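Usage

Read records sequentially. Each one opens with the input sequence:
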Amino acid sequence: MKKIHKGFTMPSAAYSVPRKAIKRYKAIDRPPQVGDVLYGVVETIGQHKSLENKEGRIHTIHHGTHAIFVFGNRYAPDYYEGIVPSESDFTGIDLLARSGLVGKVLSKSGMVISPTRIKPLGYACDNEGKVINTRDYSLINPKATEKKSPRAKLILNIGTAMNAGKSAAATACVYALSVHDKEVRASKVTGTASLKDILSMNDAGAAHYSDFTFLGYPSTYLIEEEEILDIFNKLDLKYANNKDNYWVVEFADGINQRETAMLLQSPAVRERIHKLIFCAADSFGAIGGLHVLKNKFGLVPDAISGVCSSSPLHIRELSEYTDIPVFNSLNVDPKELFDILSTPRKRNKKRLAAV
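and closes with the structure output:
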């Protein structure tokens, strides 16, 4: 084992791991697992030119930069699909995300360049030589094991795909509720480690914020269904016990993505929904998404938002198919949105016929 000297960057993919736990590094003698922590050096600069640390600061990286990284899988249609490599004998790995997530790229969007490459120096470990794995560390350990009713009102934000505007919509929901003196907690249940989205919700007024990294997961792509539901339930037990509060939640990527679909098909999740916000990049995506939501999941949203909400033409096109209200998350009227989030759900023929 060799000592890891102070001053290394601790990435947000290892959010739950205390810095003091990492002492040394040793040779890679087995295939990596999800959550294994790596000590490595930047070999070549590609798409990602920076690292996000546990405090949300963005560090510029260079050829030769030493840092901590975390093995995990990533699903990002606008960037990469990447997995934890199965072989233990490798000389270089790919930086999958700015949060320090590393693995092997399987495919990439034509809109991005090749990934930044990391040369592994060894597994990060404690003084006894035990490899540090993020899943051994959790900041969320609810005292209760069963949910008591009534609970905090769940405002769930979902969408058609990555970059449809879900995080902006969730932030707008937090803002509209908090300016009306409602206690709001915010969580992102699935996705790839990144503090940007939950910090934005915190800035908008969320008293507490969290995501899957708080439970030790650097990402949620390809984990088991029971793990996905466990993440949702533990965050629910931790942050949504007060019936007078609101819990604003985002599911990453689109409704057809594996983990999001698992959650939407779960009765335990569906019965918790107080209001459902659906986001899309354009009106046609929203119209198609409404159809999939209704026919595959039996769900009808209470409001539509996302990138499409910034265009009056998209909104006009939507109005020909549905009367579900649309709100512009980037220029939100907090009173109008509060009325949507706090009033009983409306059901009418036009809304149901549209999907």
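Summary fields computed downstream for this record:
- The CA atoms of residues 313 and 333 lie 19 Å apart.
- The chain has nine helices and 17 strands.
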